[in-house]
Write a structure and sequence with these properties.
- The protein is an alpha+beta fold.
- The chain is about 40% helix and about 15% strand.
- The chain has nine helices and ten strands.
- The protein has a four-stranded mixed beta sheet, with helices on one face.
């Protein structure tokens, strides 16, 4: 199943620019942009729904990140999803919340886990490698227990995933795909402000660390995507087509859009306010 070629937007895979136009297709359970695999959108047979507690992946250290949990044993499922499903089957909702928090505390790269002071449904996770806390609404995570989908449902979900991958290109966005997961989006309003400068930095002669600092100043990514930054700092590759397309991007005008870090902060604030509102209604 493949969509029509799309000439707008920008795509990179592991730091390598992909020439437009972009055809987003499904091959089995995988999603491709042109000939680059960018996601595993489902698994067949379905993900591990057997009644077995998932095992922690080998090799996790203090320097690991949440990106290392994106894919578990090539199954296309996150450890978080497996653990949540298992805990929900064996505990009531409140107990499951506590155990999910304990699971995050057990990860070697997690420095601290605490419940939000105003809303117990939100946990705040601090890691050793990032100066920014991550807020997770485990109330939503504990909302329901999932059961295996049938073939028709999987095919329908795959087509939804394929169309979702098309949308950023149709809207003129830039997407950085990574084999380890954790894809990064630059919104259409941010492309003129950030993409040309980012390409200039990545093509420069600076060290990997210098490039990472420059990318942070540009506001392209925040510190949650350290592994992605490192890949871009070492494996970036452009093309003549990219040069030509960047020259056609109009100079930015008006007020600068929010950066990725600012958008994440705003999303975290909105999540806190939403959770607080839900908690207030329950009282």
């Amino acid at each position: 199943m493949a969509g029509k070629p799309i000439s707008t937007g920008f795509a990179f895979k592991d730091g390598v620019y992909l020439d437009a136009p972009y055809t987003v297709s499904r091959r089995g359970c995988d999603i491709y942009v042109n000939d680059a695999k960018v996601a595993t959108a489902a698994t067949w047979p379905p993900m591990d729904y057997e009644d077995k507690k998932p095992e922690m992946p080998a090799g996790l250290t203090k320097n690991s990140t949440f990106e290392d949990l994106e894919i578990v044993k090539g199954r296309g499922d996150s450890l978080d999803g497996k653990m949540v499903r298992w805990l929900l089957r064996h505990n009531d909702r409140d107990k499951a919340r506590e155990l999910i928090a304990e699971y995050y505390r057990s990860l070697p790269f997690v420095k601290e886990v605490k419940f939000h002071k105003d809303t117990t449904g939100i946990i705040i996770v601090s890691t050793w490698h990032s100066d920014k806390d991550i807020e997770m609404d485990i109330g939503d995570m504990c909302g329901s227990v999932y059961y295996p989908p049938n073939a028709e449902q999987v095919l329908s979900a795959l087509e939804v995933a394929r169309k979702r991958m098309e949308k950023p290109f149709k809207e003129g966005e830039c997407v950085f795909f990574f084999s380890h997961g954790g894809n990064l989006h630059v919104g259409v309003r941010n492309v003129p402000w950030q993409l040309p400068d980012a390409v200039r930095v990545l093509r420069g002669s600076g060290t990997k660390d210098q490039k990472i600092k420059e990318l942070q100043k540009i506001g392209l990514f925040d510190t949650s995507f350290q592994k992605s930054w490192e890949l871009l700092g070492t494996d970036f590759s452009a093309s003549k087509q990219l040069d030509a397309r960047l020259k056609k991007i109009p100079m930015p005008t008006g007020e600068r859009p929010h950066t990725a870090a600012e958008e994440r902060e705003a999303a975290d604030k909105a999540m806190r306010e939403d959770a607080a509102a839900k908690a207030g209604k329950q009282k």
